[in-house]
């Protein structure tokens, strides 16, 4: 089972911490913001504290995030 980009449905690397491809991520947030989001999520995953400090962003949160920005 492979992950797919929530925007364009293109396949995303299973090991990726994000649910969308780089192209869409940068298209939505811009490269700087996209890199910051990816870094936050990777840091959260490394620390094993996903969700406990609001560092991990779920697909739903990403959609809300998109609305805010
Ligand atoms: Zn995509």
Task: Describe this entry's structure for a reader.
The chain has 69 residues and is mostly helical. It has one domain. 51% of the residues lie in helices and 6% in strands. It has helices at 22-29, 31-47, 59-68, and strands at residues 3-4, 11-12. The chain has a two-stranded antiparallel sheet. Strand 1 and strand 2 form a beta hairpin. It is globular, with a radius of gyration of 12 Å. The N and C termini lie far apart (31 Å). The mean pLDDT is 78. It binds zinc ion. Zinc ion is lined by residues 5, 7-8, 10, 20-21, 23-24.
How are the SSEs ordered, and which strands pair?
Layout: E1 3-4, E2 11-12, H1 22-29, H2 31-47, H3 59-68
Antiparallel strand pairs: 1-2
Major sheet: arrangement of strands: 1-2
Bound molecules: zinc ion
- Continuous helix count: 3
Class inferred from helices and paired strands: mainly alpha
Overall average residue pLDDT? 78
Helix content: 40-55%
Measured distance between first and last alpha carbons: 31 Å
Question: Which oligomeric form is depicted?
Answer: single chain
The structural domain count equals 1
The percent range for strand residues is 5-15%
Q: Which ranges are low-confidence, i.e. pLDDT below 50, for 5 or more consecutive residues?
A: none
Number of strands: 2
- Note the run of SSEs as H and E: EEHHH
């Amino acid at each position: 089972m492979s992950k797919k980009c929530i925007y364009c449905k293109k396949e995303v690397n299973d090991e990726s911490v994000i649910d969308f491809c780089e192209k869409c991520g940068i298209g939505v947030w811009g490269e700087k913001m996209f890199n910051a989001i990816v870094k936050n999520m990777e840091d959260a995953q490394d620390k094993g504290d996903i969700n406990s400090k609001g560092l991990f962003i779920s697909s739903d949160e990403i959609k809300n995030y998109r609305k805010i920005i």
